[in-house]
């Protein structure tokens, strides 16, 4: 009975998304979405698959009226009405950021619907530095707010916060997420560079600490820096970080310093939340089939089986104004089966290895994956640097920017240059630049690699 009601809520357009005149119903809609997501925790895999197919039918049906997507469907003889299983859906071509950037927004969106709903144009570049424009549907906004209430309340129960149904959460630096949850407070990440502002903020956290901190990996590392400088360690039950990942070494160091678990949310701005890290299995993200369909494919676009590494593909269900159908998020990962997770969630795991598109150019014929360098730097700089960044905007050399700790020495500098030069096969000169900070972009990310 409850499963049926939850499916109806998730398959039906929220009341407030029918037009500007109905926006006053958004609070009721968010409440209903949260209830539906709470019930979905108990769905069987078969029920989740049925819901996934139903939601894919909805988003592809909407996309069929948009010129770019209509041409994609026509090229593969795809119609949403004929979709009976996920195999049929997988016949559609993969969409990449590069492809979509070359298509005018009006051709891959529904501008009339966007105008009616007064939908803003969103711009995202992520860590790629290549801007992509899209509209954010009112349905998408309602669903993600309901999901954030659901998942944060669930985390609250996991940390024994039974005294409240709405855990208090402080948002540090995530301006684009300001409407996703009733935050206890919000602070621009760049304000932490001001000593007077930090004193006010740290006093507030000392007198009235939030249950959780919600921030990006970049701002968390900046908080770590200033917390050590100012001699104040904030107290949270857990820290939720998003926008980028943390290497194992720096994550362990941050966990020890803040004396609380770190929990990662995985997703992209243009799609949606795709994974919530399991409390019992670090590095494994429970899939979010309530919000999107995630696939792993090979280089030819063929869907891979459980346990195999490949390109991560996402189809969010709720942006009918600017759909993203089988969108390559430019990460490499795999899906692992969830036999019986102790956290209670039944969805399979998503494991992320890293970006697939970042390469350091050595010559016209040779290149090296950026991650091969960053993994080594993470080990060499553990405890000796707060942040680092690679810069190859001049393709004839590689510069490494470092925000050093007091433990960083001239010997470390010599060793890093020697090691990275060796990894590059001597193809590029390597230099280091010590800096007080590395700029964080408006999406809460630091561009790890500039080119």
Give a verbal description of the structure.
It is a single chain. The chain has helices at residues 2-11, 26-40, 45-63, 67-75, 86-89, 97-101, 111-116, 138-158, 195-207, 217-230, 248-258, 370-380, 410-423; strands at 121-124, 132-135, 169-172, 185-187, 212-216, 238-242, 262-267, 273-277, 285-287, 292-297, 310-316, 327-336, 349-355, 359-361, 367-369, 385-391, 398-404, 430-434, 449-450. With 451 residues, it is of the alpha/beta class. The chain is globular. Strand 1 and strand 2 form a beta hairpin. The longest helix is centred in the N-terminal third of the chain and has 21 residues, at 138-158. Helix 1 runs parallel beside helix 3, helix 2 packs across helix 8 (138-158) and helix 12 packs antiparallel against helix 13. The strands form 4 sheets. The protein has an 11-stranded mixed β-sheet, with helices on both faces. It contains 13 helices and 19 strands. The protein folds into 2 domains: 1-356, 3-Layer(aba) Sandwich (Rossmann fold); 359-450, 2-Layer Sandwich (GMP Synthetase, Chain A, domain 3).
């Amino acid at each position: 009975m409850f499963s049926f009601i939850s499916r109806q809520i998730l398959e039906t357009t929220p009341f407030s998304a029918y037009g500007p005149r109905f926006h006053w119903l958004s609070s009721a809609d968010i409440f209903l979405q949260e209830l539906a997501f709470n019930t979905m925790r108990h769905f069987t895999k078969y029920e989740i698959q049925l819901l996934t197919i139903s939601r894919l039918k909805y988003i592809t049906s909407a996309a069929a009226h948009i010129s770019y997507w209509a041409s994609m469907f026509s090229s593969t003889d795809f119609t949403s009405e004929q979709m009976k299983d996920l195999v049929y859906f997988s016949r559609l071509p993969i969409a990449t950021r590069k492809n979509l950037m070359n298509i005018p927004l009006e051709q891959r969106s529904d501008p009339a619907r966007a105008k009616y709903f007064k939908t803003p144009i969103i711009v995202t570049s992520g860590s790629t530095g290549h801007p992509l424009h899209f509209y954010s549907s009112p349905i998408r906004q309602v669903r993600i707010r309901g999901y954030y209430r659901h998942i944060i309340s669930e985390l609250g129960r996991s940390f024994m916060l039974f005294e409240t149904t709405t855990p208090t959460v402080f948002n540090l630096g995530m301006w684009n997420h300001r409407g996703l949850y009733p935050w206890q407070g919000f602070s621009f990440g760049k304000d932490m560079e001001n000593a007077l502002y930090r004193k006010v903020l740290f006093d507030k956290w000392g007198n009235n600490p939030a249950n959780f901190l919600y921030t990006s990996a970049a701002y968390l590392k900046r908080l770590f820096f200033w917390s050590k400088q100012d001699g104040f360690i904030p107290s949270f039950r857990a820290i939720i970080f998003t926008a980028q990942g943390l290497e194992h070494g720096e994550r362990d160091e941050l966990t020890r310093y803040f004396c609380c678990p770190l929990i990662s949310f995985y997703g992209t701005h243009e799609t949606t939340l795709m994974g919530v890290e399991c409390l019992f299995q670090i590095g494994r993200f429970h899939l979010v089939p309530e919000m999107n369909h995630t696939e792993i494919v090979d280089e030819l676009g063929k869907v891979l089986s459980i346990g195999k590494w490949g390109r991560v593909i996402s189809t969010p269900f709720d942006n009918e104004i600017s759909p993203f159908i089988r969108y390559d998020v430019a990460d490499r990962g795999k899906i692992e089966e969830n036999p019986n997770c102790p956290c209670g969630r039944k969805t399979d795991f998503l494991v992320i290895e890293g970006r697939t598109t970042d390469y350091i150019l050595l010559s016209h014929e040779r290149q090296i994956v950026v991650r091969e360098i960053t993994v080594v730097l993470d080990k060499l700089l553990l405890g000796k640097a707060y942040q680092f960044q690679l810069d190859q905007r001049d393709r004839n050399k590689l510069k490494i920017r470092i925000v050093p700790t007091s433990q960083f020495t001239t010997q470390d500098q010599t060793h890093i240059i020697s090691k990275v030069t060796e990894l590059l096969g001597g193809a590029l000169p390597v230099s280091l630049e010590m800096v007080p900070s590395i700029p964080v972009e408006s999406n809460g990310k630091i561009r790890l690699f500039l080119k």
